[in-house]
Amino acid sequence: MSDLVGTGVRVSVPASTANLGSGFDALGLALGLRDEVDFTITASGLSITVEGAFTDVPTDEGHLVVQAFRKACELHRISVPGLALTCRNSIPHSRGLGSSAAAVAAGVAAASALAGREPDASALQLAAEFEGHADNVAACLFGGVAIAWSDAGGYRAVRVDPHPDLSPVVLIPSQESSTKTTRGLLPARVPHSDAAHAAGRSALAVHGLTRDPAVLLDALRDRLHEPYREPAWPATSRLVAELREAGVPAAVSGAGPTVFALPEGGVLPAEIDITGFQALAVPVDVDGVRVAPLG
Ligand SMILES: Nc1ncnc2c1ncn2[C@@H]1O[C@H](COP(=O)(O)OP(=O)(O)O)[C@@H](O)[C@H]1O
Ligand SMILES: N[C@@H](CCOP(=O)(O)O)C(=O)O
């Protein structure tokens, strides 16, 4: 019998907004909207309880948190005879707010904790390999602004402190959009001038997110993914354009269809028409994943 039976951890994971416009597949920002998952190691079987606003997920081995947890347990050589999971979901699914990255990060962080480890570079590697988007995963694990990349050694990221004046508003439509589907809209090649545009703007975005938010209106403009994905969410593209026109730094959040905006003081100009979107002011999250023993 595993000596873990009867023990457990509570994991709290933040939402994240990836890309920040010009930083396609590279930049992420953690947001203070959290899912919470309780993992209890039992003698046998699998039970999953899902509470909260977003409950339409499998309740068997197909559950994303379970899949990531099992994979990470294998890596840490942890034997888990049975598992009881209670999920309290607040991050909207398939809206571009990193719900899948949060689910995977929760599973990986729980296994790390049972192995007596803090979530570290190997947790990033495992979670990003599993989920596919290191920009979301790094922001979710480590909080703040993530700069992510990959090389022959795997997925890497650095965390930088966000500027304290960032006051994000996310505008969430009821429409869902699958990240996998909209990645299929991206071309294999882009013009050299668009690549150069992205290099400059994404470097500027890091400066804006950390040192000088005044440059963000320019910095968040993108040519690498937003124009190609527009057919999947035309209303999102219109709202991003309207916000930029009004001087508000804005971008498509992740693979959409949520709109990410940084209005001054966290208040959108009254003239912006947000019909069809739910506006939610969410603070920047600086903590990343939190893990505590279940008591
Ligand atoms: N908390 C969760 N528990 C289980 N599965 C989840 C959870 N969050 C997300 N998922 C899975 O991930 C899918 C959404 O992933 P994706 O299309 O990448 O969108 P998002 O931008 O929300 O990450 C959901 O349909 C669901 O299958
Ligand atoms: N860089 C990825 C980010 C996907 O984020 P999500 O929150 O929509 O899953 C992409 O743009 O595909």
TrEMBL record:
<keyword id="KW-0547">Nucleotide-binding</keyword>
<keyword id="KW-0808">Transferase</keyword>
<keyword id="KW-0791">Threonine biosynthesis</keyword>
<comment type="similarity">
    <text>Belongs to the GHMP kinase family. Homoserine kinase subfamily.</text>
</comment>
<comment type="pathway">
    <text>Amino-acid biosynthesis; L-threonine biosynthesis; L-threonine from L-aspartate: step 4/5.</text>
</comment>
<dbReference type="InterPro" id="IPR036554">
    <property type="entry name" value="GHMP_kinase_C_sf"/>
</dbReference>
<comment type="function">
    <text>Catalyzes the ATP-dependent phosphorylation of L-homoserine to L-homoserine phosphate.</text>
</comment>
<feature type="domain" description="GHMP kinase N-terminal">
    <location>
        <begin position="64"/>
        <end position="144"/>
    </location>
</feature>
<feature type="domain" description="GHMP kinase C-terminal">
    <location>
        <begin position="216"/>
        <end position="263"/>
    </location>
</feature>
<dbReference type="Pfam" id="PF08544">
    <property type="entry name" value="GHMP_kinases_C"/>
</dbReference>
<dbReference type="InterPro" id="IPR006203">
    <property type="entry name" value="GHMP_knse_ATP-bd_CS"/>
</dbReference>
<dbReference type="GO" id="GO:0004413">
    <property type="term" value="F:homoserine kinase activity"/>
</dbReference>
<keyword id="KW-0067">ATP-binding</keyword>
<dbReference type="GO" id="GO:0005737">
    <property type="term" value="C:cytoplasm"/>
</dbReference>
<dbReference type="InterPro" id="IPR014721">
    <property type="entry name" value="Ribsml_uS5_D2-typ_fold_subgr"/>
</dbReference>
<keyword id="KW-0028">Amino-acid biosynthesis</keyword>
<protein>
    <recommendedName>
        <fullName>Homoserine kinase</fullName>
        <ecNumber>2.7.1.39</ecNumber>
    </recommendedName>
</protein>
<dbReference type="GO" id="GO:0005524">
    <property type="term" value="F:ATP binding"/>
</dbReference>
<dbReference type="InterPro" id="IPR020568">
    <property type="entry name" value="Ribosomal_Su5_D2-typ_SF"/>
</dbReference>
<dbReference type="InterPro" id="IPR013750">
    <property type="entry name" value="GHMP_kinase_C_dom"/>
</dbReference>
<feature type="binding site">
    <location>
        <begin position="92"/>
        <end position="102"/>
    </location>
    <ligand>
        <name>ATP</name>
    </ligand>
</feature>
<dbReference type="Pfam" id="PF00288">
    <property type="entry name" value="GHMP_kinases_N"/>
</dbReference>
<dbReference type="InterPro" id="IPR000870">
    <property type="entry name" value="Homoserine_kinase"/>
</dbReference>
<dbReference type="GO" id="GO:0009088">
    <property type="term" value="P:threonine biosynthetic process"/>
</dbReference>
<keyword id="KW-0418">Kinase</keyword>
<keyword id="KW-0963">Cytoplasm</keyword>
<dbReference type="InterPro" id="IPR006204">
    <property type="entry name" value="GHMP_kinase_N_dom"/>
</dbReference>
